[in-house]
Amino acid sequence: MCSYRLPDNTIPxxxxxxxxDGLRAEAAAILAYLDDHxxxxxxxxxxxxxxxxxxxxxxxxxxATGRADLLDALRALLADNAHPAxxxxxxxxxxxxxxxxxxxxxxxxxxxxxxxxDLSPAYRxxxxxxxxxxxxxxxxxxxxxxxxxxxxxxxxSLPEVQPARMFHLIGLAAMWRAVGARPVATVGHSQGELAAxxxxxxIEMRDAVxxxxxxxxxxxxxxxxxxxxxxxxxxxxxxEALLARHSGWAEVSVxxxxxxxxxxxxxxxxxxxxxxxxxxxxxxxxxxISFPAHTSAMAQLRTDLQQLxxxxxxxxxxxxxxxxCYGATLGAPITQDLTHREYWYWNIRNRxxxxxxxxxxxxxxxxxxxxxxxxxxxxxxxxxxxxNPQDFLxxxxxxxxxxxxxxxxxxxxxxxxxxxxxxxxxxHTVPNAQPPALPLRDFPSTVMSTKRLWAQYxxxxxxxxxxxxxxxxxxxxxxxxxxxxPLAAPRTVxxxxxxxxxxxxxxxxxARAARFGxxxxxxxxxxxxxxxMLPTAPAAETADAVAELAAFAAAADRLTAFASGVTECWLVxxxxxxxxxxxxxxxxxxxxxxxxxxxxxxxxxxxxxHLDLPRDAGxxxxxxxxxxxxxxxxxxxxxxxxxxxxxxxAKRLIVAESSDPAxxxxxSDVLILxxxxxxxxxxxxxxxxxGARRITLVSRTGETAALTERLRPLRALGDTDIEVVAxxxxxxxxxxxxxxxxxxxxxxxxxxxxxxxxxxxxxxxxVAESAAAKVLGIGEVLRTMPLATDCTVLLCSxxxxxxxxxxxxxxxxxxxxxxxxxxxxRAQGMDCTAVQWGLWGLPDQExxxxxxxxxxxxxxxxxxAAAITAGFxxxxxxxxxxxADWTRLRxxxxxxxxxxVFAPALSExxxxxxxxxxxxxxxxxxAQPAVRAPVNYAEAIRREVDRxxxxxxxxxxxxxxxLVALGFDSLQALDLHARVKATLNRDVPVTKILAGASLDxxxxxxxxxxx
Length: 1011
Hints:
The protein has 1011 residues and is of the alpha/beta class. It is built from 34 helices and 32 strands. The chain has a 16-stranded mixed sheet that branches.
């Protein structure tokens, strides 16, 4: 029979529902069933509930020791009363991110681990492993003697206390893991950082044992007599004022919280400080540490400590780890660039900044569990969290006075009922391999909600697409150097070497991966990351660059044939980006990166990321370059990276600074390629109004009757001669014939607005067709046509080259080639710029799906005259010119993984909307909102969800069901974001909605997000 037992052998009986009323109804049904079936035991009931129920949001967990206890707790749950065996929070469970907090030395006592060693197999196994390492390395059993023996004599020497303390923390963490607590981070205080690093996986357990023992022996030999440490319940400045009035030596050595510090120094000075502080009504207590920890006295140990560690450790630096580790040594995450020799000296020398470590950890953690046999750091944790409005949970492990595991069990129960995704199977055992018991007869069914789980749905074709022009903004690319940053957990990478020409680099990647804890293979069976490495000798000629793009198109299917479990896909190019002033982009690799970005939009949830190597990467040391590649693919959250001069750079889009008016242009002879299209005619109108003498519009079809009518008002403006010429610019003979027209009057302005805009699959044939006019054609024109010495060239690129677009890989790729071509032409001395334009106008009515995609992404139609002015504002760089609903665009780039690239521009442009008061509406019955959310938030957000989904307001939407399950798509998520922002001045992360957030989750997010 299946069995569910908590650590102290109590029986966990879980009742849950979608609402508080439903939970009480469940309790009533189970209570009635037990009254009618007096022979059903708590064990049988727990088994039936776990096998037939899912754990819903509102929970009550009864820790039953017998049937009478169970019945009393059920009655208490039904009456909403407290009971010693019942754990039931006031609100619903939520997704919890757990952090383990490891204290340092000071609260230890002989035999502190005996209770847990005797009662917990998980604790015993973990401690035995530590002890075996210690015995093998040092042949010393004093640590285990101190940990487990409550009666024998103990010298309280550091070589027995400090290893024992670390073993104890490792064992307690193992107990928590055994009952389903999965930390996303650890936080270490002083010596507790060793256990925190070991549990996080950033240091090997053997190395932790070496460090703790060597350091303890050195401290015992040099600084273990005549010193003391105290904790003081006051702030740093007040404590230093107390110290200033005493002649003995002591220093503020620990800052646990704003009003809780530690002091280390001469023993008599510490004793006197404690006495004076208590006399003045200030809490102060001396703790069990006999050396001047975290003071200047530690400086004398540096050389000896580092020599002791020497080359004995398995690694010089911290390892990559899936679990983040926050250390009080620096008050920040521990990163892979830190060396053990330096860090573990700093760990005893630096002032402890636990306050900073906790604050930093709140980025990843909302549930802090202190891993200790008695609460020591919980008051400090709570004080550090008190100013943060987030819903934090702080738990302990046990009490020093405990005689069993009941206190630990209570803490486990607190976590289980509050964590929405608590793994209940962690409490599942199958004693003696017995088969499952038969279901209980006549067992009551789950009490279900009567609310409907669906609502009316607004299709994309029904969504109105606003077409009002909005002021354009000019952006530009900037590449910024990246400081040292925390890295992701080690990856298992499938390396796709594009043509195997870079075997030395591929071999170096394979060889160096282990140094980072990663694995890179060309034939991995299981992998979480795919990396395609293009040749490090990119093509120099434009035609060859088009061939490179075609080769990528042929291999694209292989790239996106993902195995289950892939989380990231990397493209490694060479020389594709202009990072430094001397960089000339390799057009084929630049185009491939844009096409690759578009492919990612068909695989949302998988991070499509790009790394660009320097143009001479083939000449670099393969080992050094491999290290930089491996480091880059482990950086969290950066979608566009580049390596230059051995450093990592990240792409950013910034608002271009306003400059003096652009230099005047010679408008004597203007040539507009693609001149009869919408963009070409906008430029024609602008130049005609500016007094151009002659404008030649080039297209394949030439002038038509409809075009003549459109040009009539422009030709009537003044003396401008507007001529339309039929010419296929991909035909060399046709271009040569066109050039002869300008023998006597060289061209002063060239605008390349030709486009072959096709929604096509990425294949080699389509690449050739798309690149012909867009890229190869302009090259032929500029080589053949007579150009004035002051000629200005403007290449019309598209914002899709930066943003990407579904089904637009070819369009994005060829436009990115134009961006690179402009850089190349400027390097040759030509006055040339490429402008990535936003939206000139919406597609025709028959293609409303395209229109909805564009508007849904946040783009708005640009006023042509202002856009053209912005495009010519600075011809010394490439630009992006677009109009947008910047708030919606911010949500779009967040969804597609480009938020860091756009962050600088959008932080300036997507300004918060001033909050408007929420109009009162008649109250109505709704599901209980998420914990801590004010009622007006819940009502207002529900109202906006009704409007987005076109619900009639009478049928209730189940607030616990993911919105995507009710029909929400990305456009509706963006619409809800905009409505909540305008109504409440609160942000709703669109990615959270698309990832499965319910209405209750949205209310919680909004209530916590105070703009």
